[in-house]
Write the structure tokens for this entry.
Amino acid sequence: MNEVREPAIRLIAMPADANADGDIFGGWLMSLMDMAGGLAATRRVRGRAVTAAMDGMQFHLPVKVGDEVSVYAEVERVGRTSLCVAVEAWRRERHQENAYKVTEAKFTFVAVDENGKPRPVNIQEQ
């Protein structure tokens, strides 16, 4: 990873997040990605946003216990009530400098009001 960007979430993968062989559960990583995408979405819509969909994911590399996991999220498209957030997860071994992309996905979020009903997103604010 050559470009410098700030992760939405960064943490260390722990034993409770792994199977008996020390590989991190895919669901744990998907949860982090959903949280990171939600952070980007709620900031963009300036309010509540809920996950509506996620495109397919392929895991390119395993994440091991002790790896530093960084999740990046960027709003790609904004519609009337929804937005698409591109999310990537990267891993870095504890004592190494190089980071490697583990997976990526596109998440769709819907802006909702206090009653949980879809509300318009102000597309003029980018």
